[in-house]
Amino acid sequence: MSKVVFHAAGLRGHADHGWLNAHHSFSFAGYYDPTKIHFGALRVLNDDIVAGGQGFGKHPHDNMEIITVVLDGALEHKDSMGHTQAIYPGEVQVMSAGTGVFHSEYNHDDTDPVNLLQLWIFPDKKNVEPRYGQTVFDEKERVNKLQMLVSPIDKEDEGLKIHQDAWIYRTSLKEGNTIQHKLHSDHHGIYVFLIDGNITANGQELTKRDAAGVSNTETLELKALADSDVLLVEVPMQM
């Protein structure tokens, strides 16, 4: 029988710094919950709103796979690998920090806020050469089906590549539709983050910004009770 851990949107960690309104699905910065340290290899899922003209100054990362999904607005990224570019809705960015990288992230607009999801996944290899990727994903290609955004670097699957046996999907599931996903391994779990809408995930009902970590299962079943935008993160559970 599958195990489902429910994370209510209203019980996420929250920090409002004025320029940054952040919600944390897992312990992060000043938010600590011993029951929410990570879900398998998924260490961070932050839901950030950054005010116009504001952002995160230059800071370091190492040995982490960092994935950024912009939901609204535009985020400007600059890093020590020489990349300077904006990320818009429909685009996904990945950065393998590896041996170490510095980067900054700012709202690309001076007035309108930007809303982004940032995920950190533990890598399966340490001290790799840092790398960067960014791709536009057509939203029409995820209507009532799973669109693969991220996949393992050693697999020929679609999407951007990371150093972990993990996959990230997004779907626009219309009301009344059902999707089933077979996990890649018995040792994997899948974290379901509902960006918007109303669904059930293996029977657990979710509304906007709720999440559910599903493990001990071969299959995930999503049912849309309303038009829904869903992010799925399949990761190894044993670290």
What would you say this structure looks like, in words?
The protein is mainly beta and 239 residues long. It folds into two domains: 12-136, Sandwich (Jelly Rolls); 139-236, Jelly Rolls, CATH 2.60.120.10. The protein is 0% helix and 55% strand. The protein is built from no helices and 22 strands. The radius of gyration is 17 Å and the shape is globular. It starts with a strand and ends with a strand. The mean pLDDT is 97.
Secondary-structure element series: EEEEEEEEEEEEEEEEEEEEEE
CATH fold name of the largest domain: Jelly Rolls
Q: Gap between N and C termini, in Å?
A: 22 Å
Largest sheet: 7 strands, mixed
Mean pLDDT: 97
Considering the chains and any ligands shown, give keywords for the structure.
seven-stranded mixed β-sheet, 0% helix, mainly beta, 2 domains, seven-stranded antiparallel β-sheet, Jelly Rolls
Give a short summary of the structure:
Helix content is 0%, strand content 55%. The chain is mainly beta.
